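Support request from a user on the community tier.

User writes: "When I paste my structure tokens into the form, the page sometimes reloads and wipes my input. The last time it worked, I copied everything first. Here is what I submitted, just in case something in the input itself triggers the reload:"
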């Protein structure tokens, strides 16, 4: 069994090369998105790469691995959108807030530094390594494709994806098992094979979500700029609420 985690590390010294690379990466994502949107349906990532690779390399001056990552990301995004039953075929736009890197091909990392390929070559950036993160540099974890992300606070962070194989849990000697059902009326109902049950009521959370729903309807009917700002604020609050629950 494989355990996968994402470790968030703050980049201490972002510079113009990093910012410009992220902007170019975003430009490449949007160009690729437009090409795929015009097709009217998803196409394989490799076929998309063949169409956009020359533009990404020659016009945007992106490095080779980035020019391969972009069509894979965009193709995956449209494939997911296409699978949603009620989703319309629409162009996806990307903001300059993240970019993906492949381990060893365009980034390497140790406890103190991440070396990232930018449009002006590979450059070292200091990272703020927190105590909890040091365990992921002990040599037992494998590094996967990771991201540089610009957070809402304006700072840049490296989202390091790590993977480790761990032993499967042996359950042959277990005498009792638990099943958990999640929902809205009850956040969770836990029941065991020895017929014991625990209920976790969700009435308060359900009421809060209904309140947010009513507020959204009122604000959407107004359509003003301040109403749109409030809608965005409410969406963030509701998202944090459900995440914490």
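"...and here is what came back when it finally went through:"
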């Amino acid at each position: 069994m494989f355990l996968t985690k994402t470790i968030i590390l703050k980049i201490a010294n972002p510079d113009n090369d990093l910012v410009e690379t992220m902007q170019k990466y975003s430009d490449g994502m949007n160009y690729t998105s437009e090409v795929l949107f015009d097709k009217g349906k998803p196409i394989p990532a490799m076929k998309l790469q063949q169409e956009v690779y020359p533009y990404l390399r020659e016009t945007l001056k992106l490095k080779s691995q980035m020019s391969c990552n972009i069509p894979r990301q965009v193709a995956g995004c449209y494939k997911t959108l296409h699978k949603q039953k009620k989703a319309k075929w629409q162009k996806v736009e990307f903001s300059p807030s993240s970019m993906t890197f492949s381990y060893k091909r365009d980034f390497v990392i140790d406890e103190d530094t991440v070396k990232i390929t930018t449009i002006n070559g590979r450059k070292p950036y200091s990272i703020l390594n927190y105590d909890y993160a040091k365990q992921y540099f002990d040599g037992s974890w494998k590094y996967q494709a990771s991201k540089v992300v610009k957070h809402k606070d304006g700072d840049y962070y490296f989202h390091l994806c790590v993977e480790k194989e761990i032993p499967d849990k042996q359950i042959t000697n277990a005498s009792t098992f638990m099943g958990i059902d999640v929902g809205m009326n009850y956040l969770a109902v836990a029941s065991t094979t020895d017929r014991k049950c625990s209920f976790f009521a969700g009435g308060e959370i359900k009421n809060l979500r209904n309140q947010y729903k009513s507020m959204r309807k009122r604000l959407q009917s107004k359509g003003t700029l301040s109403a749109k700002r409030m809608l965005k604020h409410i969406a963030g609050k509701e998202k944090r609420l459900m995440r914490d629950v």
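Agent notes: The reload is a front-end session timeout and is unrelated to the input. The chain has three domains: 1-168, 170-201, 212-244. The helical segments are 16-39, 45-59, 64-83, 203-222, 225-244. Escalated to web team.
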